[in-house]
Design goal:
The protein has 245 residues and is α+β, with helices and mostly antiparallel strands. It contains eight helices and six strands, in the order H-H-H-H-E-H-H-E-E-H-E-H-E-E. One of its GO terms (biological process) is cell adhesion involved in single-species biofilm formation.
């Protein structure tokens, strides 16, 4: 008589966990961190049915979790300036501007005459200017605010839960930091300024993407007023913070 091998539920669980762990390793080697992480989660769940979780599996799950988080963070950052990219900006604005109960200000920032910087000093210096402007824009922001690269030489400051006067002050301080920065230390004869269009949305109004269009209109108002200025709108109409050297 042929002896029939008995397979216990415990063996099946262990085999399934091993299979998921193997698949996860293959996916990880291909750079598919999301799917690898999901298979390791299944393997870990199966392993919990055992008296103890293999330490190697636990370490592998922790490693992939960190790598997944790092990869996601990198995917939301602008490669040149390290501030958030347009993808992150669009996602966050969609959430923030959809809730009319919470006020939010957006400041659209443009580097004045940036083409002249590239033409006069070269694109290597131009890239250095973009990186330094991004760093200066991030300084002094409230903890819940953020800076993102909107495109080209344009950035956006997103300021949730701030009052209008505070939003204007934040934008003006950013403008002043950049205007007063010792750019000549980077390259002799270099000077950099920004213009800012600040649109504030109170919780009493229907917040939507028209606020970004308003910030764009106000940016042009700052440009037309002579550049190196902050333009915003209040109950009395469009205001421009004049630059006093």
């Amino acid at each position: 008589m042929t002896e029939v091998e008995t397979v216990t539920p415990k063996q099946v669980t262990a085999d399934e966990a091993s299979l998921h762990e193997t698949i996860a390793g293959t996916l990880a080697s291909q750079g598919d961190w999301r799917r690898a992480y999901e298979h390791l989660r299944v393997a870990l769940a199966l392993a919990r049915a055992e008296p103890s979780i293999p330490e190697q599996l636990r370490r592998e799950v922790d490693r992939l979790r960190r790598e997944r988080a790092e990869a996601r963070e990198e995917s939301l950052r602008d490669a040149l300036t390290a501030v958030y990219n347009r993808r992150y900006l669009d996602q966050r604005l969609e959430d923030l501007l959809s809730d009319a109960r919470k006020p939010v200000a957006v400041a659209l920032v443009d580097i004045d005459l940036f083409k002249n910087v590239n033409d006069t000093f070269g694109h290597v210096v131009g890239d250095q200017v973009l990186r330094r402007v991004a760093e200066l824009l991030r300084e002094g922001l409230p903890s819940h605010a953020f800076c993102a690269r909107y495109g080209g030489e344009e950035f956006m400051l997103v300021l949730p839960a701030v009052q209008p006067d505070a939003a204007v002050r934040i934008a003006e301080l950013a403008r002043a930091r950049i205007a007063e920065h010792p750019w000549s230390a980077l390259c002799e004869g270099l000077a950099v300024t920004i213009s800012v269009g600040l649109a504030y949305q109170s919780g009493e109004m229907s917040a939507n993407r028209r606020q970004v269009l308003e910030a764009d209109d106000l940016l042009y108002a700052a440009k037309h007023a002579g550049r190196n200025r902050v333009a915003y709108r209040d109950h009395a109409g469009t205001r421009v913070v004049e630059y006093c050297p």
